[in-house]
Each structure stands twice: as structure tokens, then as C-alpha cells.
């Protein structure tokens, strides 16, 4: 996979302004929904807009907006690679320019957060390692941590100990998760993958 599209952005970060890119991904119907002959309530009508095809009456429908616009929307047949390229790549690889970046998924249970984030992380790490390989004149340190926040309790996904971790307010660093495992000796993709596998197994 090439990085030509993001290269310029990586060398010339856009300054200190904050930017938020919001995209929506529609999940395909699962086999249970198909068996029930469910129909998706949502439809992408272009790259930026989804519409709600609800079953309300015409008079009720006028009370609710039916079209919602985002920076990007992805239809149910969009593969992870396309979601990554169009929705997360620029953010994910901006870290090599020293920009603080974050990609996260939000949605109800079974909406596809894990499916999407696993795909995005794999493509992002491939790109980041590719960049590092091609810039041997620079030194990079990659750290990897994984935590789950569930029912307001924080759990370290790289530790066998499932005791909830405490959140501390550090005057300089902001909110800090106490005792979160931080692997800072990631040598290559395979090394990362061993931690990553551990996270995937714990998510089940
Ligand atoms: N875009 C997609 N294409 C194909 N299958 C998908 C897609 N998104 C989600 N799925 C499937 O739907 C199921 C639920 O997805 P996933 O586990 O990612 O949801 P989640 O939002 O992480 O759920 P939870 O909050 O319960 O952990 C999984 O079996 C996943 O493989």
C-alpha cells in the first residue's frame, strides 16, 4: 500500500489547530436480521449523507429530520480498507509528524466498532511501519497500550490482572490511567501483532 496521498501532510503538519473528522459506517445486516427479513433503516445517498428510512407515518415523519450529513459516510458494502483510506488514514499517520491524533469508534452494541477498529489499526500500523522503514535517518519510539472502558471501569487488556485501573488527574499530562501497561519496545509489525492478538482475544 502506498502512502503518496498522505506523504505531504505528514511532512507539513497543519499547525496547531484542532481538527475532528466524523464519519459514519453502516453495518450490513447480519444473518439473523436477514432471516427475519429486516430492512436497514439507514441508507447512504452519497459520500456525506445518510437518510433514515423509517416506518413512521407521513405526519410523524415530518417531525424528524431524515437526512444527516457527516464528513464522510460509508455504505454497508464498504470494506475496511476503504474506510481506513478515506476516513482514518490521514489522522492515523499524522502521528509520525508528531501530531497528537486519536481515532475512536462510538456506537451501540454490535454496530461494528471492533470490526472497524481492528481493520483500521492493521492498515494504520502497516503504513506507520512502512514510513519508519523508509525514514531510517529518524528515530521513532512506538508504544502500545490497550484498555477497555466498560460500565465506567477501566481494564488493562495487556495484563492478566483484571482489577480496574484508577484515573488520575496529572497537572501536566492531564488524565492518566494509573499502572496501564505501556509497551515501548515494539520492533516491528510481528511484535505488535502478538500484543494485538492478546487484545482481540480479550474483547471476545
Ligand atoms: N462492516 C461489517 N461488515 C461485515 N461484518 C461486520 C461489519 N461490522 C460488523 N460486522 C460483524 O457484526 C458483528 C458485531 O460487530 P462488532 O463486534 O464489531 O460490534 P461492536 O460494536 O464492537 O459490539 P460490542 O459493543 O458489543 O463490542 C461481528 O460479528 C462483526 O464481524
From TrEMBL:
Keywords: ATP-binding, Motor protein, Nucleotide-binding
PROSITE patterns for the chain: KINESIN_MOTOR_2
GO BP of this protein: microtubule-based movement
Domain of life: Eukaryota
Ranges where the Kinesin motor domain occurs: 19-204
Example GO molecular function: microtubule binding
SMART domains: KISc
Pfam families: Kinesin
InterPro entries: Kinesin-like_fam (IPR027640), Kinesin_motor_dom (IPR001752), Kinesin_motor_dom_sf (IPR036961), P-loop_NTPase (IPR027417)
Residue sites binding ATP per the record: 107-114
PANTHER family per UniProt: CENTROMERE PROTEIN E, KINESIN-LIKE PROTEIN KIN-7H
Family affiliation: Belongs to the TRAFAC class myosin-kinesin ATPase superfamily. Kinesin family.
Record protein name field: Kinesin motor domain-containing protein
Record organism: Gossypium barbadense
Amino acid at each position: 500500500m502506498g502512502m503518496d496521498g498522505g506523504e505531504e501532510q505528514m511532512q507539513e503538519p497543519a499547525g496547531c489547530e484542532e481538527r475532528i473528522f466524523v464519519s459514519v459506517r453502516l453495518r450490513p445486516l447480519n444473518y439473523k436480521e436477514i432471516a427475519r427479513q429486516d430492512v436497514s433503516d439507514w441508507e447512504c445517498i452519497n459520500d456525506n449523507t445518510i437518510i433514515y428510512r423509517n416506518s413512521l407515518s407521513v405526519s410523524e415523519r415530518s417531525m424528524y429530520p431524515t437526512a444527516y450529513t457527516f464528513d464522510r459516510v460509508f455504505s454497508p458494502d464498504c470494506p475496511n480498507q476503504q474506510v481506513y483510506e478515506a476516513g482514518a488514514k490521514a489522522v492515523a499517520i499524522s502521528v509520525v509528524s508528531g501530531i497528537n491524533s486519536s481515532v475512536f469508534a462510538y456506537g451501540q452494541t454490535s454496530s461494528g466498532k471492533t470490526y472497524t477498529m481492528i481493520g483500521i489499526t492493521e492498515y494504520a500500523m502497516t503504513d506507520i511501519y512502512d514510513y519508519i522503514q523508509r525514514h531510517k535517518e529518524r528515530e521513532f519510539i512506538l508504544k502500545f497500550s490497550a484498555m477497555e472502558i466498560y460500565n465506567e471501569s477501566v481494564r488493562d487488556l495487556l495484563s492478566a490482572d483484571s482489577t480496574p485501573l484508577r484515573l488520575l488527574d496529572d497537572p501536566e499530562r492531564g488524565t492518566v490511567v494509573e499502572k496501564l501497561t505501556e509497551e515501548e519496545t515494539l520492533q516491528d509489525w510481528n511484535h505488535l501483532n502478538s500484543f494485538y492478538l492478546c487484545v482481540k482475544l480479550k474483547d471476545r
